Amino acid sequence: MRLSTAGMHRSTIDAILKHQVKLSKTQDQVTTGKKFQTASEDPIGAARVAGLERKLADNAQYGRNSNIIKSRLSYEEQTLADITSVLQSARDSALAGANATLGQSERKMIANQVRQNLAALMDMANRQDGNGEYLFAGTSTATRPFAQGVSGVLYQGDQTTRQIRISSTQSLSDVHTGVDAFMGVAERNGVFRTTVSAANTGNATISVGTVTNSAAWVPDNYTLQFTSATDWQVVDDTTPTPVTIASGTGFTSGQSVSFLGVSVAITGTPAANDTFSITPAQNTDVFAMLDELARTLEGDPAIAGSEAAFRAQTGASLMNLDAALDRVVSVRAEVGTRLQAIDTAAEFRESEEVDLQALISGIRDVDYASAISKLNQQYTSLQAAQATYSKIAQLSLFDYL
Amino acid sequence: MADVLSTGLSALRATQRALDTTSHNIANVSTDGYTRQRVEFQTRKAEFSAGGWIGTGVQVSTVRRVYDQFLAQQTRASGTNLARLDAYATQAERIDNLLGDSDNGLSATLQSFNDAINEVSSTPASIPARQALIAEGQALSERLRSYDTRLRNMSSELNGRLSVEAQEISTIADGIAKLNGDISVAFQQSGQPPNDLLDKRDQLINQLSEKVGITTVASDDSTINVFIGNGQPLVLGNKSSQITTTVDPLDPERTVISMQSGSATVDLSRVISGGTVGGLLDWRSQMLDPARNELGRIGVAIASQVNAQHREGMDLKGALGGDFFNIGAASATAATANTGTATVSVSRTNVGALTASDYVLTRTATGYSLSRQDTGAPVSFTGTGTAIDPIVADGMSIVVGAGIATGDQYTVRPTRNALQGMSVAITDASRIAAAAPIRASAASANTGSGRVTTGEVLDPTNAALLNTVNIDFTSATTYTVNGAGSFTYTPGSNIDINGWRVQISGAPAVGDRFAVGSNAGATGDNRNALALADALRAPVLDGGTTSVYAGVEKLTTSVAMSTQTAQVNRDAEAAIHEADVAAQDAVSGVNLDEEAANLLRYQQAYAAAAQIISVANEMFDTLINAVRR
User: Fold this and answer.
1) DSSP codes joined into one string, B164-222
2) CA-based Rg of chain A, rounded to a whole angstrom?
3) N or C end of chain B: which has fewer CB within 10 A?
4) Which residue in A160, A399, A401 has the most chain B C-beta atoms within 10 A of its own C-beta, making it the best mutation to test that interface?
5) Three-state DSSP class for residue B408
6) What is the pLDDT of residues B452-464, one digit of tens each?
């Protein structure tokens, strides 16, 4: 084996250059804190980091989404709380107004309060969020959802509920639509409505009634007719020829009349030919319910022309307001559930983010302890290579010639 | 006595040659390609005199190059490989640096676009969010376009580089041919090897082999013939061929390496392997072109997914969404050698079936043949190429116009030019179709428990899509549509009318009405924005198995993998080449200590020979003095 002089120099220089490249790579790692600077240094790791970072970015977006929906739902919650207190106050008015000792002028004053409640309710139902979007308009957020029409309040929004993603697997409904919150509330007891005929001459009034056996109830229009002060019959109106389906004698005030699984109480003294109608309950809305209460208190002849009709109506209104409150409370409960879901998702996201960061760090981030000791080691090797080169290069036989 | 003088003189002359050669070695210690030389001594012819054969001194038989043919060839072979791998790896690193940046890479840009869609979906009425989406869409198309431009520039840089390399190959080949001539003359004149010329020629051959893979054959007259590709003669004796670059007949954008053969040129691109040129050509066909086409394919997939979904939505003004992205069309270019005049038009019909390859469509005597440009593998297709019955293959539809001649060729590029035409088609933020075009609602007077879903669009092109349709229940199990017909109601089943679909569930009562109609005015609706975000995640590429995201990751990973492989191969080959060079050096390289020792040795020999002359002189004096007496 012999070595050529040029080869000897070249191989030593090559070794020094190689050491320098290694040293510079390790230095890059230490200065950037990353194990690899380009994807080719660790293709699998780079791909995994890209995937994990995408998840992180998605999570950040879900976080922003959550903040938006959370502020809207919180605002809805606040609004529903306000509405609850308005409805509560209207209910108090109904209770106060139902007091038989009040005169018409006092009832009118109470009616005015109810009208104010109604106006406040309209304002609340038409609230806009911080971006000027109507809360209860469904997705038609630029449209004022509730407007006064000729025959009551009209809903002008739509019935679409916005869905917002709050995690990779979970979408949450945004604020309720006006229909969900205020419309389509079943009136009275939810099954039938009772009214006192305006032509009645007796002072008997009818209760809201209860359902004792819902399976036996057949929705139809029925008339409770007193053939005398003590004899009554229930007639099904809508068949071509009215059919008597129940009858009784010996009526006394406060007695309940039962038929087809429902029961209504008649209080007072009916006159012969007095009639009370029992018709299927309609779906109405919270605004109409307040309006009805106000009209009752104002003594609107169409619904509260007589004291008996007034008493039946106030009883019905109390029931209506209970139904309205039930609706608002259940919507509020849903809002609460959604807000909770946001918090749960946020906790999950946070813990997931910690995991993701740890995974990314494990793949990409440099371990400083080992990197710096490697740097030292490479530094020493380079020094050694340089030192030996300068020594060995000095050796020459020509020095001795 | 005269013999002593002549023997001494021969020794003087021979050791002087040895000293000359040693100094030549020392002088050339740093000369590239120099092979150390050695003087071979031999005894001169002996003379017979009574009593035996008397030696007459020394002579130089030859000056020999200390050269190992086998080692030299091994070094050259590993040098060719190293040059190829080095060129490939260096270029691959450029693409890797372009695509593999995790902070500013394509993946991050796509994510920003996706985030902007999500932002619109959570605040659909917000104009700033919509403007941000347009801006991110522009950023995405600009990023894709700039990648494409960078890759395109690499391709045109490569054209320039190839032309320089071709010139250098020609120059080196010319040099080898000239040296062949000189060497053969020198040999014939002296019968001795012209060592320095041989070194020069070896060095030129090494340089050539670093440019391109070659095979060499030594012939009897001590010339070396050099062949390129699969046997094309580059140097024959003292003649060499010209290597040039010519425009690829199938692709005017790129050049190929050709050999001038008489008046014709022969395309060598497919047969060249090894060396810098081989590495560059390999890189172009294995990395650059696929990466460009793949990027184009990703752009096409993004545009087609987003556009299709965007068309199914409704904008803030109540109109159906149009295209969100513009995208460049598929292209077909005629080969320069075509004799016909037909124009060929290509359209993309199925994103899922598109590949990252280019194709060559050839008119045969009986019809057409279609093959992949990179591998030449035939591709199966259906259709005859007419407008009614287009050629359909790999997600493309090809229509050939009138005037095609047999043998005409067209390069068909389904995705290559897509990105240069990519931009955002929307400028007005209110035109972003974040809402679904239809809404379904239950009438407020409904008494049943029936509920209707919000509805989805099946066919956004249906002319009656936005017309109001009333579904009225005539009994608990039947309904009419706009007052007509009688349909059986099954809870939860699909009701498809006018290109939309809803489901009604629950127990609707007689007289209940559900209405479906235009969703104009639903400024807060985000249904289509959610669907847009989903569309980006939906698997669409590769026959519906790869999402756009996965496509981007696949591209960057495959580029990174190829780069890593190329680097590993290069480093391995560099080690092999280094060992080969060291082995050759060990035999042929100059060692100064050795030469110093030789210098000493030959100097002493020279002094001794001079002493012989002096002895001969004394002998002569002794004789003269004896005679004078």
Assistant:
1) HHHHHHHHHHHHHHHHHHHHHHHHHHHSS--HHHHHHHHHHHHHHHHHS-EEEEE-TTS
2) 41
3) C
4) A160
5) coil
6) 998 888 998 999 9
> First vs last Cα of chain A: how many Å apart?
24
Please report which confidence band the pLDDT of residue A306 belongs to, taking 50, 70 and 90 as the band edges: confident
Residue of B nearest to A67 (CA): B122
Chain A positions in Cβ-Cβ contact with residue B586 (cut-off 8 Å): 1-4, 7
In the predicted model, residues of chain B with pLDDT beneath 50 are: 1
Burial zone of B464 (CB within 10 Å; 0-12 exposed, 13-18 middle, 19+ buried): exposed
Question: Where are the extended beta strands (E) located within B519-593?
Answer: none
Q: Cα–Cα distance between A190 and A379 in angstroms, integer?
A: 87
CA closest to A138 among chain B residues = B524
- For residues A140 and B521, is the Cβ–Cβ distance under 8 A? yes
Going from the C-alpha of B350 to that of each of B131, B354, B393, B543, B550, the distances in angstroms are 31, 7, 10, 9, 18
Give the number of other Cβ atoms within 10 Å of residue A300's Cβ. 17
CA dihedral for A10, A16, A20, A21, sign (positive or negative): positive
Token pair in block for residue B486: 């009688």
- Global pTM value: 0.85
Q: Which residues of B touch A4 (CB under 8 A)?
A: 36, 585-586, 588-591
CB contact under 8 A, B530 and A163: yes
d(CA B243, CA B235): 11
How far is the alpha carbon of A174 from chain B, nearest alpha carbon, in Å?
A: 9
Question: What is the edge-to-edge ordering of all strands in the sheet holding A243-248?
Answer: A192-196, A275-280, A222-226, A232-236, A243-248
CATH superfamily assigned to domain A41-187+285-365? f41 fragment of flagellin, N-terminal domain (1.20.1330.10)
- Taking the C-alpha atoms of residue B602 and residue B17, their distance in angstroms, rounded to an integer, is 9
Q: Name residues whose C-beta falls within 8 Å of residue B345's C-beta, 6 or more positions apart in sequence.
A: B332, B398, B399, B401
pLDDT digits (tens, 9 = 90+) for A227-285: 888 899 999 887 678 888 888 888 888 888 888 899 999 998 888 889 999 998 888 89
The whole-angstrom separation of Cα B358 and Cα B337 is: 19
Contact A192, A280 (CB under 8 A): yes
Which residue type occupies A242? P
Handedness of CA A385, A388, A391, A394 (dihedral sign): negative
